[in-house]
């Protein structure tokens, strides 16, 4: 797979972002990506699946502390809510992020993807000729070279995702808020990353570096498209998650402060009170406060 065609392919593949449906399977494509020199990123997690293929170079994949070597031909998948990172000085890497709409998908398909999400079989070495990789290469080539108005890619993409539960199985190894089509792909990915990692320290420069951007450029995207700063968005999402946890769980205020990245109860209480008008403990028991503290403007 020639990395020189990746740019042309990605511009077409972004048209598949959103929901794709075929009979009893409904998936949501979050984003596609490709880099000729993918470098190390921060440890993080997603609320969705992210499948990656190493087209060239070497590196390391760390999943929940387990270390795996990466080389040309390695196919791997980051399952939802698993802490992971990639370490490399420069790999040719392509990736696809997606999840399954459980409410519009049949029980058999939901069961297959639920088992995939819990499986420890998430990496395949020497997968160049596996059906999933061959199909992925065909999709990239078709996107780069064909008129996609006459040759729709949707069904090929659905077929690729549908192949994954059978691809990542023990016998094969032996031989979570939907985003709209992007204003900007970089911003959309950054918003999802923030929401998936609210319990972690989130600094503008670190998030920008993960997406191979400058902090200044990411800050401009927030101001231009959301009319708010990076810091204000992170704080808003932490407050939103805290309100949900206060309403729907029995976690203590201290636990919620930790889960939402505020750290201390004092700081959490001060920020929550300033945003919502009452302290967290009062919000939990007040019937009139059962709505969200913010309208869902950016989900």
TrEMBL record:
One of its GO terms (molecular function) is sequence-specific DNA binding. Keywords: DNA-binding, Transcription, Transcription regulation. It holds the Pfam family HTH_18. SMART domains: HTH_ARAC (SM00342). Residues 188-286 form the HTH araC/xylS-type domain. The keyword Disulfide bond does not apply. It comes from the Bacteria. PROSITE patterns: HTH_ARAC_FAMILY_1, HTH_ARAC_FAMILY_2. InterPro entries: AraC-bd (IPR003313), Homeodomain-like_sf (IPR009057), HTH-like (IPR037923), HTH_AraC (IPR018060), HTH_AraC-typ_CS (IPR018062), RmlC-like_jellyroll (IPR014710). This is HTH araC/xylS-type domain-containing protein.
């Amino acid at each position: 797979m020639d990395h020189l065609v990746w740019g042309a392919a990605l511009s077409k593949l972004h048209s598949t972002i959103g929901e794709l449906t075929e009979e009893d399977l409904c998936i949501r494509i979050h984003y596609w990506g490709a880099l000729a020199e993918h470098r190390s990123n921060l440890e993080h997690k997603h609320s969705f699946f992210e499948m990656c293929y190493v087209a060239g170079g070497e590196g390391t994949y760390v999943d929940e502390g387990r270390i795996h070597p990466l080389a040309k031909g390695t196919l791997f998948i980051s399952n939802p809510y698993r802490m992971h990172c990639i370490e490399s000085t420069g790999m040719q890497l392509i990736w696809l992020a997606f999840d399954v709409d459980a409410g519009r998908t049949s029980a058999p398909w939901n069961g297959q993807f639920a088992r995939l999400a819990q499986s420890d079989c998430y990496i395949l070495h020497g997968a160049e000729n596996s059906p999933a990789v061959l199909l992925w290469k065909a999709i990239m080539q078709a996107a780069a070279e064909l008129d996609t108005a006459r040759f729709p890619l949707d069904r090929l993409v659905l077929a690729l995702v549908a192949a994954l539960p059978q691809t990542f199985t023990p016998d094969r190894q032996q031989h979570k808020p939907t985003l709209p089509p992007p204003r900007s792909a970089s911003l959309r990915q950054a918003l999802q990353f923030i929401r998936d990692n609210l319990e972690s320290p989130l600094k503008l420069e670190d998030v920008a570096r993960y997406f191979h951007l400058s902090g200044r450029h990411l800050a401009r995207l927030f101001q231009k498209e959301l009319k708010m700063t990076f810091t204000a968005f992170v704080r808003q999402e932490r407050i939103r998650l805290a309100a949900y946890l206060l309403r729907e769980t029995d976690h203590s205020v201290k636990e919620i402060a930790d889960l939402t990245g505020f750290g201390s109860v004092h700081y959490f209480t001060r920020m929550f009170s300033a945003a919502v008008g009452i302290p967290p403990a009062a919000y939990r028991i007040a019937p009139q406060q059962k709505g969200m503290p913010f309208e869902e403007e950016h989900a």
